[in-house]
Specification:
Strands 1-2 form a two-stranded antiparallel sheet. 68% of the residues lie in helices and 1% in strands. It contains 20 helices and 2 strands. It is globular and about 65 Å long. The chain folds into 2 domains: 26-393, no CATH class; 396-451, no CATH class. It has 457 residues and is mainly α. Its main location: membrane. It is a multi-pass membrane protein. Belongs to the nucleobase:cation symporter-2 (NCS2) (TC 2.A.40) family.
Length: 457
């Protein structure tokens, strides 16, 4: 999900069959749209499913939120691709629910539950804070040239790595059976580990195959196989499917809107980093679509893309869903198919909206056992951390950079593992440093501003 901005020239030779403004025949359009959908479907629904399971939400609420994550992704993708005024990149750039926000949202939600908040109050506070924090990207889109001096590639790499590393604990919890398994004493049982192992093994196997379509679809296929194995082992009950209503009517602000101060700062930091990821992803899409990656057209695209990211995340919060961001998976599909036509994106957006309107889809997603989910997400979370390492590796790792990394990782991972170190701190400090990602991210930003850069000979 992370891309790195590069000033490069547009390639002279073309590998594209259909360019940005072309309209492929319907069969090719549907084939390409299905490939995009397969590449992103699991990544769209999984963050919502993980949050709902971690917070112990009832099945009905989970169904609603998963459905709305699909619908919000469809609407957000249309806005990003179509462009409305200054909003949108105008490229085949698909939007989906972002994994980046899982840690802060789950941490804040569990804290609210421990404080006695019921589900509507908790979700209202989460969605209201997301709505407020999404303005971060709106603001950044207007002053991109200045923010990139503060959020440098080194800072971005550190935060992305911390996001991945702190999420791995969530993935391992799912592999063991989730919080419900911890409560009933079955956490880490052999049947759960076997299921996760099947999924993980299939993902590794298919990613080593030469067939590019198998690699792209590896997570979907592995999770389907894992769910089938769980059903054969008697670990899945399909009784709830009979109670599914035919269509889901969107109910904006179903829980109302509240606010949680401890969630705001971590979300602002993640939104800032996500805006840089959006720049990287849009740059990559421009490259694969043989569009300019420098100059006024390119600058307009990245400003519009980051602005769309912020507005779409606010829209997602209103629709009872979680923040959206650009997906890099779809750049691989453009390369595989040779189809960069944004006309394809309208079909992908329509498919996502339709899937979101039918609760049966969300109900089927809820049947996926947590160990199956964990086997897939542990790979995704590890990939996020690896993406952060890749960004850092492109920086000059002098003594200053090593010191910033050392202190940021120490603060971030230390507080993630031992949050009680802050128990005697003022409430304001505890709120700001409530997550390891926020602690490490703020450390990186402050040190990057305070420590002078080493002079080159």
């Amino acid at each position: 999900m992370t891309g790195q901005h590069r000033e490069t020239e547009r390639p002279r030779s073309s590998d594209l069959i259909y360019r940005l403004e072309d309209r492929p025949p319907l069969p090719q359009t549907l084939f390409a749209a299905m490939q995009h959908l397969l590449a992103m479907f699991v990544a769209v629904v999984t963050p919502s499913l993980i949050i709902c399971q971690a917070l112990g939400l009832p099945a009905h609420d989970t169904n609603t939120i998963v459905s709305m994550s699909l619908l919000a992704s469809g609407v957000a993708s249309f806005i990003q691709i179509r462009t409305i005024g200054p909003v949108g990149s105008g490229l085949l750039s698909i939007q989906g629910t972002s994994f980046n926000f899982l840690g802060p949202i789950i941490g804040a939600g569990l804290a609210m539950k421990a404080g006695g908040a019921d589900v509507p109050t908790m979700m209202a506070a989460i969605f209201g804070t997301i709505l407020a924090a999404s303005l971060t990207e709106v603001a950044i889109s207007r002053i991109l040239q200045h923010t990139r001096r503060v959020i440098t590639p080194l800072v971005s790499g550190i935060v992305v790595t911390l996001i991945g590393l702190t999420l791995i604990q969530i993935g391992l919890t799912s592999i063991g059976g989730g919080y419900a398994a911890i409560e009933d004493g079955s956490f880490g049982s052999l049947d759960k580990l076997l299921l996760a192992g099947i999924v993980l093994g299939l993902i590794v196997l298919m990613n080593r195959m030469k067939n590019p379509y198998l690699r792209v679809s590896s997570i979907v296929i592995a999770m389907a196989a894992g769910t089938l194995a769980a059903w054969l082992m008697g670990m899945i009950s399909t009784e709830r499917l009979a109670e599914t209503s035919f269509i889901a009517i969107p109910a904006p602000m179903q829980y109302g809107l509240g606010f949680d101060g401890s969630l705001l700062i971590p979300l602002v930091i993640v939104f800032a980093i996500t805006s840089l990821e959006a720049i990287g992803d849009i740059t990559a899409t421009s490259e694969t679509s043989e569009q300019p990656v420098s100059g006024p057209v390119y600058l307009k695209r990245i400003k519009g893309g980051v602005l769309a990211d912020g507005i779409n995340s606010a829209l997602a919060a209103v629709l009872n869903s979680f923040p959206n961001s650009t997906f890099s998976q779809n750049n691989g599909i453009i390369q595989l198919t040779g189809v960069a036509s944004r006309y394809i994106g309208y079909f992908v957006a329509g498919m996502l909206v339709l899937l979101g309107l039918f609760p049966a889809v969300a109900n089927l997603v809820q049947l996926i056992p947590e160990p199956v989910l964990g086997g897939a997400t542990i790979v995704m979370f590890g990939t996020i951390a690896a993406s952060g390492v890749r960004i850092i590796s492109r920086c000059e790792l002098d003594r200053r950079a090593i010191l910033i990394m050392a202190l940021s990782f120490s603060m971030g991972l230390g507080i993630a593992q031992k949050p009680e170190i802050l128990q005697f701190m003022p409430d304001m400090v505890k709120s700001i440093l409530s997550s390891g990602m926020a602690a490490g991210g703020l450390t990186a930003i402050l040190l990057n501003l305070i420590l002078p850069e080493e002079k080159k000979d």
